């Protein structure tokens, strides 16, 4: 099926003082799109000083990241952008201790939870987490 273009851009070096509404306006100014119209959404991840911008349409995310990296307001804030690479694996957290890997497999193969074929589950019991690897990329979108 080939490689699908990424619809997700990661904004890095986002200081704690930067509010999501400021990032939304910055994305709107650079992209010409509207969050109110559902063209994209922004999720702040303060733990790693980042934000994730998810575009809903056929936005040229590579071009957007390039424009943001050249934008003087973004440069003032030291914010950089890069396209999020697609992956076949996800990390699931808050998994109760002693959860069988078969249960995790069936959970993620259930249509309500993605419905993609799981090829591997690597449990991380010390972290109450697991790395789930899918047969293809559509399951972890």
List keywords for this structure.
28% strand, 141 residues, Nucleotide-bd_a/b_plait_sf, PAR14 polymerase, 7 strands, 4 helices, alpha+beta, Alpha-Beta Plaits, RRM_PARP14_2
Report on the structure:
There is one protein chain. This protein starts with 7 loop residues before the first strand and ends in a 7-residue tail after the last strand. The chain contains 4 helices and 7 strands. By secondary structure, the chain is an alpha+beta fold. The longest helix is centred in the N-terminal third of the chain and has 12 residues, at 20-31. It folds into 2 domains: 8-83, 2-Layer Sandwich (Alpha-Beta Plaits); 89-134. β6 (118-124) and β7 form a beta hairpin. The mean pLDDT is 88.
Short description:
The protein is α+β, with helices and mostly antiparallel strands and 141 residues long.
Strand content: 25-35%
What is the overall pLDDT average?
Answer: 88
Order of strands in the sheet with most strands: 2-3-1-4
Give the class-level CATH name of the largest domain.
Alpha Beta
Our Rg estimate from Cα atoms comes to: 17 Å
Question: What percentage of residues falls in helices of 4 or more residues?
Answer: 25-40%
Class by helix and strand content?
Answer: alpha+beta
Number of helix segments? 4
Poorly predicted ranges: none
CATH architecture name of the largest domain: 2-Layer Sandwich
